[in-house]
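In response to the reviewer comment on reproducibility (Comment 2.3), we provide here a single inverse folding case reported in full, input and output, so that an independent group could reproduce the run without further information from us. The structure tokens appear first.
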């Protein structure tokens, strides 16, 4: 099967990361030919790296040797670029979030369907090792049936860059990191959403949110707390997961964490009171040591990022996409709901 000739539209931070990822996979049959970026500086970088530098979008889209494009520009420009590329007969990989609303996303998906070209969204964090551990815990039941998931990312550096501060460019943290955490959650939990509440944060005084907390309840009873913060000098754990037989914590992307599980239910001793502040408590005493085990987290299954390999197979072999457009749409519906539920 021949390689796919590929062009990058938007050669900034993420555009370059895609190219590095593609180049690092020796067996991948994707050939990065060139880039198109409106910034002269980025054009120069691309030229120095030996790629063809396209001078206009039209030049990319009329280049018959190019079969597929990546769109890695600011969020507000994805829709138009994607529709133009699909209409020009190109397959498209698009960065997240594709659009800012479900209605706009639907416009893109209609064109993808009509043209028959592949449209796939880069939800790369489905391959994050911390997420794969959370998935393992959820599916294999090492801490019993999971009834509460807390998934957070927190930093203290504010909203990064330039366009991410502006509403017109689709800035804000819900549309940035929120998309990833919500995509992971919906990929994990196979149950319809029952209820959503949310609070967006505007601590930094930007016109867009600098973080948010959302509580999501599913029909199967599972409750999730999703939080993104950019004003957190001390972080809470990346994952805190409660099951009917134990609790697991994954502190960060370095995968340090642990599980405490019930080992011998019959042997559970009544807790002894402990001094807590200026009082005594049995309720908050540590769990009985005889009846619990502190265990290492399960190993993340080896699942290297196969996004582009899958993209190749979808284009060449009509394989099933790992990131399905209906899943992307479900995340967008949830994002709209979170914006709606925010109480001003
Ligand atoms: P960036 O600002 O670093 O890069 C964007 C580039 O697009 C810039 O070089 C800019 O000059 C160029 N550009 C702007 N408008 C253009 C246009 N109309 N045509 C061609 N080029 C144009 O931004 P970034 O951090 O690389 O983010 C780009 C996209 O990638 C965003 O949608 C963002 O959400 C996404 N992203 C995804 C991940 C991920 O993990 N999946 C991580 C970071 C960013």
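Designed residues, in position order:
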């Amino acid at each position: 099967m021949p390689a796919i000739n590929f062009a990058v539209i938007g050669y900034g931070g993420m555009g370059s990361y895609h190219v590095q990822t593609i180049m690092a996979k020796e067996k991948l049959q994707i050939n990065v030919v060139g880039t198109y970026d409106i910034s002269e500086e980025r054009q120069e970088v691309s030229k120095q790296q030996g790629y063809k530098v396209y001078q206009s979008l039209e030049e990319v889209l009329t280049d018959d040797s190019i079969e597929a494009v990546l769109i890695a520009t600011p969020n507000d420009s994805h829709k138009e670029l994607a529709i133009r590329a699909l209409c020009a007969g190109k397959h498209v990989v698009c960065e997240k979030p594709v659009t800012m609303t479900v209605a706009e996303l639907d416009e893109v998906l209609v064109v993808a369907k009509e043209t028959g070209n592949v449209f796939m969204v880069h939800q790369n964090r489905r391959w994050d090792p911390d997420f794969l551990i959370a998935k393992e815990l959820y599916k294999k039941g090492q801490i019993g049936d999971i009834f509460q998931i807390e998934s957070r990312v927190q930093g203290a550096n504010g909203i990064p860059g330039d366009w991410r501060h502006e509403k017109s460019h689709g800035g804000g943290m819900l549309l940035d990191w929120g998309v990833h955490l919500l995509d992971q959650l919906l990929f994990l939990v196979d149950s319809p959403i029952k209820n959503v509440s949310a609070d967006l944060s505007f601590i930094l005084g930007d016109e867009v949110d600098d973080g948010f907390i959302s509580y999501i309840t599913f029909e199967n009873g599972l409750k999730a707390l999703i939080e993104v913060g950019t004003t957190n000098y001390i972080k809470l754990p990346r994952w805190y997961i409660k099951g009917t037989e134990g609790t697991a914590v994954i502190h960060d992307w370095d995968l340090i964490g642990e599980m405490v599980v019930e080992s011998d239910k019959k042997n559970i001793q009544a807790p002894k009171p402990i001094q807590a502040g200026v009082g005594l408590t049995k309720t908050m005493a540590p769990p009985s040591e005889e009846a619990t085990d502190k265990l290492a987290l399960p190993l993340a299954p080896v699942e290297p990022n196969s996004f582009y390999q899958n993209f190749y197979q979808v284009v060449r072999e009509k394989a099933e996409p790992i990131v399905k457009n209906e899943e992307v749409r479900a995340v967008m519906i949830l994002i709209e709901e979170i914006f709606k539920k925010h109480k001003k």
